[in-house]
Amino acid sequence: MNAPSISERRHIRVIPGEAKETTSTLVTTSRTSHFVDIRIVPLPSPNSVKPANDVDTWLSNAPQPTHMLQLGFAGTSQSTAAITEGGPAHAVWEHWIDSRSDDPPKDQGDMWARPNGDVLETGKSVDKSTGKVVEYEELWGYLGVEKVGGEMKRVSVVMRCEDLEKGIRGLVVRVGGWCQGIVKVKGEVSVERWKYAEKKEKGSGGVRVENDVEEVGRETDLGDWERVIRLGPGALPCSLAFTPAKMKEGDVVKAGDTKWTVIEKHEW
Q1: Would you tell me how many other CB atoms lie within 10 Å of the CB of residue 112?
Q2: Residue 224 has what pLDDT?
Q3: Least C-beta-crowded within 10 Å: which of 6, 20, 45, 122?
Q4: Phi, psi (rounded to 5 degrees) for 68
Q5: Tell me: the pLDDT tens digits for 188-206?
Q6: Are 253 and 159 contacting, i.e. CB atoms less than 8 angstroms apart?
Q7: Residue pair 92/75 in contact by the 8 Å Cβ criterion
Q8: Distances from the Cα of 224 to the Cαs of 81, 151, 203, 230, 235, in angstroms?
Q9: Cα dihedral angle (103, 99, 72, 30), rounded to 10 degrees?
């Protein structure tokens, strides 16, 4: 098992082109390697000079058009250690849910560790605009996993749903102060991303969730959770991951009419 992580893409490069980043791409990964990868093409802020992957600048809590989802997928990953010193590890990501396809191509890459802690992913993929196989590289940085909201330990939570008769699959992964979820219902995809935002004023917190599992009106002196992106009409139980003391592995919760199972809860 691996330590839970939060990774943010710094750039992508289709060789021999230039490295760039025009999305907000974040991956939350649990100890058992369950992950949610959400890639948003954000609306630009006219007064901003910050990078495109700065979610505070680009994203808001208001409903966003679904075309902003460049790609969303979730599942489990496997990693093989480097064979030689200084060589790359090899990673494979299973797309149990994929916003583009019910039968996505194999997703794998070589992971080159950098001295500053970043990881350069290299590999081959199919260019969706041309259908040709191209070489690519993606640079990933890791965000710190922190204790939030008065929690005594760092927390990761995974919730999963599947109803084959209704064509539903969903996965939510919270790691520290970030939580992401994706659900696909008969081909229609909905995603959410939440972050924990420290509030300066006492009692200024409080999550109020519309069309979700429940309405949460709790207050905290340390800050609160903010939904920074929501695309699609589907209900996701992300807000329940914010009170891990009230859940245990094996618990069943509901989002709308769909039952979700807590398959992982880890504190460290």
Answers
A1: 17
A2: 86
A3: 20
A4: -70, -15
A5: 999 999 999 877 555 444 4
A6: yes
A7: no
A8: 38, 12, 10, 17, 20
A9: -60
Which residue is it, tokens 């496997």?
78
Task: Enter the tokens of residue 55.
Answer: 């979610």
Q: Are 141 and 149 in contact (CB under 8 A)?
A: no
- Contact call for residues 38 and 72 (beta carbons, < 8 A): yes
Q: What angle do CA 133, 131, 113 make, to 5 degrees?
A: 35
Apex 27 CA angle, 45 and 68, nearest 5? 40
Type of residue found at 108: Q
Ranges in the chain, pLDDT < 70: 43-65, 200-223
What is the DSSP annotation of the chain? ----EEEEEEEEEETTS--B--SEEEEEE-TT-EEEEEEE-PPPPTT--S-TT-HHHH--SS---GGGEEEEEEEEEEEE--SSTT--EEEEEEEEEESS-SSPPPEEEEEEE-TTS-EEEEEEEE-TTT--EEEEEEEEEEE-----TT-SS-EEEEEEEEETTTTEEEEEEEETTEEEEEEEETTEEEEEEEEEE--SSTT------SSSS-------SS-EEEEEEEESS----GGGGG-GGG--TT-EEEETTEEEEEEEEEE-
pLDDT at site 62: 53
Tokens standing for 188?
Answer: 């229609």
